[in-house]
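Subject: Predicted fold for Amidohydrolase family protein, 431 residues

User T.R. writes:
Posting the sequence so we have a shared reference for the thread.
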Amino acid sequence: MKHYTIYILVITLFVGSFSFAQQTPGSKQTKPIAIVGATAHIGNGQVIENSVIVFENGKITSVNTTNSNTSGMTIIDAKGKHVYPGFIAANSALGLVEVDAVRASDDQDEVGGMIPHVRSLIAYNTESKVVESMRPNGVLMAQVSPKGGRISGTSSIVQLDAWNWEDAAIKTDDAIHLNWPSAFSRGRWWLGEPAGLKPNKDYAEQVNEVAAFITDSKAYLKGDKKPINLPFEAMQGLYNGKQKLFVHVNDEKGITDAIHFAKDHKMEQLVIVGGAEAYKVTGLLKQNNLPVLINTPHTLPANDDQDYDLPFKLGKLLYDADVLVGIQVGNAENFQTRNLPFYAGTCAAYGMDKEEALKLITSNNAKILGIDAFVGTLEAGKDATLFISAGDALDMRTNILTRAFIQGREISLESHQTELWRRYSEKYKNQ
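User M.O. replies:
I've generated the structure tokens; pasting them so everyone works from the same file.
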């Protein structure tokens, strides 16, 4: 009797784990595929009606009209549907956090203040249910970024259908993330301080601490490097141009100071992340050819005296000023990254042209992250990382994916959520 009990337990565990397992990554592309008849949203502002998109060995070979020759190919009839390049989530915590309330599943914030040597990629979990839930909305790539501290660590960029972090990586150690000190602080009501903003009396000291760290790291790198200092070693990429510096800052003074600080220390590869008041310094941004990754528009204004709809129209304000702008998701809850296309849709609803809004999560993000040579648009020579939607992918009512591909591999669009939807649909259908 004992043996039967053990067998039943093992089978139960196996079936239970299988039913909730991560979807198996797609198989390598073996035949040329042609998507025929769809409206192709290229990702650079261009739209092609009745398109034919051909890809082979994981790469797009042509994007043309329906007159193209498709003999010998696997044909996907997408007439009446829409094709988009895979959406790119910048500055996300995907794969680093599974359940916010469970500390053991949270690897986004390491101990320490100046820790550029901490690589977020090592902690990336390809089996994450959160990661899996991104794909049905068209989010197929992400920059996995560390949080916390003053210098949080190093990010990497991954595609969201892989067996392990090595397979997932499409650009490793792309940037170091610096949380710029806030020039202002809010009154702490629990200490009896007045509410509202006030100057941060420690601001200059905090900036000087960052400056001292940079100066010391440069001196170390020019010396004999003994004893080995891992944080200083990790800063090398910022000084030789191989890595970008992502500065997380929102206020006008902080943005201005951060730009001058980076120039003084000869760190030219700078990206402003957050940039809630970037619209006030567009001249400085354009003069220095600096991009901005804005916060998700579904947020409140940073200050009481700002327009209530400023987060919704910030993307257009920067676009109109000819500043390269994309959307980042760092301030959102991890699972809300799946709403990335709808954030771009909100920017379109508040004045941006729909195809320009699409660029905020495709070609613009690809340029800002330094991966535009192989992703971000539907163009020959680039990775076949794309999807087919029944309708407008920036509208939550019509963002209904029918097929999706990463590097030419067709991927599963099933997730824990879709499994539950099917399960309970059947339950109520049969009642």
